[in-house]
Design goal:
alpha+beta; 4-stranded antiparallel beta sheet; 4 domains; 691 residues
Length: 691
Amino acid sequence: MKGTAAHLLEFLEGARKRFIIPVYQRNYDWKRENCKQLFDDLVSIIKEDKGTHFFGSIVSYAHSRDEVVLIDGQQRITTISLILIAMINAIKKGEIVPSDSRLSDIIEETYIVDKYRKDERKVRLKPFRDDCEAFDRLIYKEEAEYIPESKVTINYRYFYDRIVNTCELTPDELFQAIDSLEVIDIELEPEHGDNPQLIFESLNSTGLDLTEADKIRNFVLMNLPPEIQERYYDSYWNKIEKCCRNELDSFVRNYLTIKQGAIPTLKGIYPTFKTYTKTINDIEKVLGDMLRYASAYQDIITFNLRDNETNEIAKRLDLLDMTVTYPFLMAFWTYANDVQLGKDEVYKVFSCVETFIFRRLMCDLPTNALNKIFATLHGIVLKNKKEEDTYSSVMTYILESMKLTSAFPKDDEFIAGFTSKNIYSMRAKNKEYIFERLENGSSKEKNDVVSNIEDGILTIEHIMPQTLNKGWKQALGDNWEAIQEKWLHTISNLTLSGYNYNYSNKSFVEKKTMENGFEQSGLRLNQYIAKFDKWGEEELEARKIKLSEMALKIWAYPITTFVPVQKEDDIVSLSEDNDTCTGRKIQYFIFQGDRQDVNDWADMMWEMVSKLYVMNPSILYREAASEKNVWFDTKQYSKHYKKLGEGLYYCPSNNSTWNKMAIMKNLFRLYQIDEDDLSFCLHPKKEDTDK
């Protein structure tokens, strides 16, 4: 590695010197404020007679005798090139006049083009592929042929306008200011051991603003020969990006979740990907696999699932903001295409997911439990599915077998939550979803509830108003306070309305008979309300029953015919709910394929802790030093403490089996071990032995 200070223009000049921005780099992405700051700096160099101005470092390596590959600095070099092109074009059009009439030719032939190059493209800078055409048109084409939406064009026009119209600097002064820019020219020498990838990561750690997907692209492509870079980019990466649009980080995170059964943190996507590829050791195989799932991801986010009814479910899941389902849906949809699953079966799977999600929402079950469920669901289905079983029946059985915070609420739980929940205070999108489903149900003639709410044509209104006037209090009776408190924000008292909100406090009869009132409403929901002559507790109860009946049809608890194979041994994984092992005795455990017999749960804990110590003792030492952890300590405070290593003790206790499972799950998280790597064989339940 060699580093020298140099003027930027010195770095750019040189006979037959060509700068290559490799395919693994980002598109040109300088924003207006970045361009403004640079041009302001150039003005200040001249006005304040600064002499020089530091312009950062340029990291590159020589790919051939006359080609330089840019590792860092490509955005700045592209931007300076745009200023120079703007100067050339402005001089040629007579918009500005330099003291030296040859200045435009000097700039063009020294810094912009190589007039001796025989191939069609003579431009010395070769930007990223999607920017290249826009860049070249600025030089060779008339303005009418520019690509207006390109950042390259947008920033060029900004510079052209400041050069021609603001008259802050003469052409000579502007060129002098650019010549005053100094850089640190860092030239890598891969043949002498310089690793462009490691150097890139070092640069990134000090502030290079890249997404996790940017880092992955660079990791995948950077160290490959240029011809393979081009092939991999064209055949795989570019197609993956197009499938995922602007959600590449999200896609990669979901992809890794599918492959590893655990969700990486937002900042852990890149390191997790690096670790994952080491297990495959074939980057082209990984890219090909990613493309398959990217295609599935595209179908899901664009609602392109072959069947209109399934597409509608995908739209509704999007409305519920249930991106947590994507790992499962991507895995399932890829599988469905591979085995050519019928549209009815696909619909059943999506419908079951929607019902599962919504019932849990109504019952206020924690959403964080969904992460693990949908990260592993597809794999569990395939593991349990026999040839004669349908996918939907197995999946339904598994979801309905979930317990506690992972449970699939039964009808009574669902209706209790649905009818008592404060619907009015829910997120806007959730409310739109609920009223869309209640209004349209399974009807083929749909009212576009969501769009009408978003456009302000419809609003979600209280039938019994939030502020009760004297008339409403009299109509409700002496118990009006209790009635309002119980019913006000529940689904029984809410509907869709097109009337002016100023009328919301009017009597029920007025709301019913007024223009655009309940009687004139074209909405199915309001046709039922219009049947009543008054609105009180009796009517609220009646509507509660009506809406409950509708809800049980719309979000029906799915039926499954699946019967699991009876295991010779009752084996459960650590990934299952903690209560699965509660009240059960353990026979043996299996960790990463190795079986070990134990006497009880305490024995299992000691054996596992000992194994983890051997794997990486530093994690347990760190836990021992933490005041929050009571399971490990640096001193032996009693004879019951078990020594793991020098200054490290395990503190066994009489904690419940449930707590032991929680401790082990936390340790597996710290060690980044999949919970499915540990399973337990349990003794038969007492009721089983009594039979």
